[in-house]
Amino acid sequence: MDSKKRTIITSSVVTLAVLGLAFSFAAVVHFPNPKPRQLTDTRVNLVTSTSAMSSGRVPSANILPSGYGWVLTTAGLELTSNGGSSFTIAQSPIPTPNIHDVAVNGKHIHIAGVINGSPVIELSNDSGATWNVMNLPKGSGNAGIAQFVTESGTVVGMLVTDVTSSNFSSGEWYSTLDGGLTWAHNEMPAAGVVTAANGNLWLVAGPQFRTLYKSSNHGTTWAKVTTPDSASSNAEAFSIPGQFLNGDMVLVATEMNLASASKFGVTIYLSSDLGATWQVSTHTAFAGQINSGEVITSGIYGESIWLGSATDQKILIISSDGTMTSTSSTNAIFPGGGIYSITPTENSTAWVTAMSDQCPSGKASCTEVGTLLKTVDSGKSWSIVNLTPATTS
């Protein structure tokens, strides 16, 4: 995933993110925009957070196939129940800059943050009208970032990355069997990124994201999974976006650049036996420079995987048989914006969060601006989603 150093920021920005994330860590690329654009009244800046262990930012938005979803903006926590056609601002008990992650399942909304070294979860069952604090078991007291893990919109757990060293290698797992009403605390082999898929939890762990674990008992215990030899020999960083409709698990591996390279490689591996063996599906590349331990963003719907990078503006759509079905760029609608999350909700529909540095003329510093983009035609065209602006006095 670059030239701007990622650090864990719990007091100002979340990590779209969740959806970030992040989620010792290097960097997010600067994308200078030679022609700064003024935000209109219908545009608000996304609020994102750098996560120590998500090799990127926690998602600042997530729209589900059901039509429910959320966005964190400078106006606040914005909710939608109609697939993003309109948004309303919810009065969150946790200040927006301190929200680390959000999970929406119909009218049920969980928000997570960290206060005084401990994770905090608030739950609303009426679309944010009222809130209740969830009782959590005592953890380490060194929590730095809290990220929900969901499956089909339902919360199944929360990963907490501890601030214990420069590489943020320690983590804790909070599991829930009732959709986030009650919680249990479990130890983890390491911090990282957790994905729920195929009835299991998959943990990509370690500062370089090169170790893979699986849990078949809701995170009570974790077993190491063998990763492809070819990826290991190339010092690639892994991520698990989920599974295809046919049940194949998907492993995305990025290979860091050589010193002079202007592109970096991405290999997609598939497993039909829950990670016992992996086969190469396809290999592709993105423009830009990444460092060791950095991965790209990805999302799966049906039999397709959508890929994007913080160093590039293109979106790739690859089918489960490894063929490229579509390629497009968001640059025309949001110049210079790196891709930080992709959420496909239909075969041709997807939501993307993008970040760009805007450098006003005559100003010594640049401002990082985020926006929510949508496509309904497999990326042939993109539109900026209008969000609810902040109230002005």
Question: What are the salient characteristics of this protein?
Answer:
393 residues, mainly beta, Methylamine Dehydrogenase, Chain H, globular, disordered N terminus
Task: Describe this protein's structure.
With 393 residues, the protein is mainly beta. It has a single domain, classed as YVTN repeat-like/Quinoprotein amine dehydrogenase (Methylamine Dehydrogenase, Chain H, 7 Propeller). Helices cover 1% and strands 45% of the residues. The protein is built from one helix and 31 strands. The protein has one helix at residues 229-233, and strands at 32-33, 49-51, 56-58, 61-63, 69-73, 76-80, 88-90, 99-105, 108-115, 118-124, 132-133, 143-151, 154-162, 171-175, 184-187, 192-197, 200-205, 211-215, 223-225, 236-243, 249-255, 263-271, 279-287, 297-301, 304-308, 314-319, 324-329, 338-344, 350-358, 367-375, 383-384. Strands 1, 28, 29, 30 and 31 form a five-stranded mixed beta sheet that branches. A four-stranded antiparallel beta sheet has the order 4-5-6-7, with no helix packed on it. A hairpin with a 2-residue loop joins strand 9 (108-115) and strand 10 (118-124). It is globular.
Total individual domains: 1
Strand content: over 45%
Shape: globular
Report the CATH topology name. Answer: Methylamine Dehydrogenase, Chain H
From the alpha-carbon coordinates, what is the Rg to the nearest angstrom? Answer: 19 Å
User: Helical element count?
Assistant: 1
CATH architecture: 7 Propeller
Characterize the main sheet.
5 strands, mixed
Distance between the termini: 39 Å
Low-confidence stretches: 1-43, 49-57
CATH structural class: Mainly Beta
- Structural class designation: mainly beta
Q: Give the tally of β-strands.
A: 31
Within CATH, the superfamily carries the name YVTN repeat-like/Quinoprotein amine dehydrogenase
Approximately how much helix is present in the residues?
Answer: under 10%
Mean residue pLDDT: 81
